[in-house]
Design brief:
The protein is α/β, with parallel strands linked by helices. The protein has six helices and five strands, in the order E-H-H-E-H-E-H-E-H-H-E. The chain has a five-stranded parallel beta sheet with strand order 1-2-3-4-5, sandwiched between helices. Helix 3 links the parallel strand 2 and strand 3. The longest helix is centred in the middle third of the chain and has 28 residues. About 30% of the residues are buried.
Length: about 210
């Protein structure tokens, strides 16, 4: 939308290449390197946005870590990586974005948490800690929505929960044997959410492959 600044917390893609491919399009994509598991780097990224772009209107929390983990045999380091990125990183990014929105009197912003269908059902015997982190995202989305309502804010919050997506994250064996979504399907869902009129809030959108 015209006049708005977008911040994407992104993992597993080359943002520089994407920015280069968009040179002929309207607007500009600024590739900013940021480790979502490190609070200092998150704050630096948002400080850059505040200084160079002035404001934030939309935040898409997309970065995530997943390992085929076991609660019996997996390493604590793997657990920390999942929780620091999927839960704490998401929360810090949200906090920083909301502060900039508040400072600029942005009352029609939108925050989208890229969740997972695993955040809405009991886990199997693998990806258990990842599933737990996505259940946390489900709770954090609703908790933030209620806090904003209490403040009479019109900033909207949405949880977007895809099924299996063709990215570098899932184990290749699943991508070879199970139906999966394309990354563009998730991007199109984001555009749908952002395209709804101001009086419409999409609380939860789940998209699954056929």
């Amino acid at each position: 939308r015209s006049g708005e600044t977008f911040i994407y917390s992104v993992a597993f893609i080359t943002v520089e290449e994407l920015a280069e491919s968009l040179k002929s399009e309207k607007g500009k994509l600024h590739p900013i390197k940021c480790d979502i598991s490190k609070e200092s780097e998150i704050k630096e990224a948002f400080q850059w946005a505040r200084k160079n772009l002035g404001r934030v209107d939309i935040l898409v929390n997309n970065a995530a870590v997943a390992t085929c983990n076991s609660l019996i045999d997996d390493s604590i380091e793997n657990w920390k990586a999942i929780l620091e990125t999927n839960v704490l990183g998401l929360s810090i990014c949200t906090k920083e974005a909301l502060q900039i929105m508040k400072d600029n009197a942005v009352d029609d912003g939108h925050i989208i948490h890229i969740n997972s269908d695993l955040g809405h059902r009991p886990p199997g015997y693998i990806y258990v800690m990842y599933s737990a982190s996505k259940h946390a995202v489900t709770v954090l989305t609703e908790g933030l929505r209620r806090e904003l309502i209490k403040q009479n804010s019109k900033i909207r919050v949405t949880s977007l929960s895809p099924g299996l997506v063709k990215t570098e994250m899932p184990d290749k064996i699943y991508l070879d044997t199970l139906p999966s979504l394309n990354p563009k399907d998730v991007a199109d869902a984001c555009l749908y959410i952002l395209g709804t009129p101001p009086h419409v809030q999409v609380h939860e959108l789940m998209i699954l492959p056929i």
